[in-house]
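I have been asked to look over a protein record a colleague put together. Thanks in advance; the entry in question is below.
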Amino acid sequence: MSEPLLDRDSGVPLYAQIRDVLRGQILGQHIAPGEHLPGELELQERFGVARSVIRQALSELADAGLIRRERGRGSVVVPTRLHHRRAEQAGGLSRQLAAAGEHLRTVVLDLRAATAPDAAVPALRTADAWRIERLRFVDEEPLVFMRSWVSRELFPDLTADAIEGSLLGYMRSTGVVPVGGPRQLRAVPADPTVADHLGIDVGTPVLLLQALTNDDQGRGLEWSTLWHQPSTVFDVDAKVETRVDAPADPAAPGSPDFDRVRELIAELASIIGPGRA
């Protein structure tokens, strides 16, 4: 695989550029889990740098848990631990992960009264909102950074302690019945805030889930954005449509095309004359 040229005038250290190239190849499965990275001398020749630069890049990959350096064998790509969740299920992440033997812990980073973003106002039916930032850990590793907007009118007494376990659980305790809502999922580069909370580099691809949760009366309860680690897998159950309507037969009696054909035949008969059609 040909390596991209290093930008020696960018101000970004060469070891960091090489680290990012190799990390991209690992995360993109160009170098599969269990495979060896090229040796230090080969990498030195590929990138045209000193061996110490290569060693620093590999050291950072090892610190990030992407590779394992073995004496006499080089560097081996470590299998990525994947975290599965249901794409169509609103809430219940703790139960989903518990089924896989993983423990979820939530930390409320910030809770304050604030004006909701323009995009959230129609859903919440108000701009007077709580702005909530939370970080969810799986076995002490950050998995999801969440920023939510919740109506202060619906939940005037909301506190950080009350939602540390589950925001939806708190809502249920007030008599509200969350039922779910639309979800959008896409890949985006991590900005500095997201990268800092998830412990990854700026620009690393992450999965962004934009979600609206309504109650059984159609009121918007929570408008939220969730940034997931690249190791998150969203599982979807796809169903084949059981009935496929056949396209209309243009020659069937009663169809527009059939009626038009009859009109044309009648016009042709009138032109040709009786007895000749």
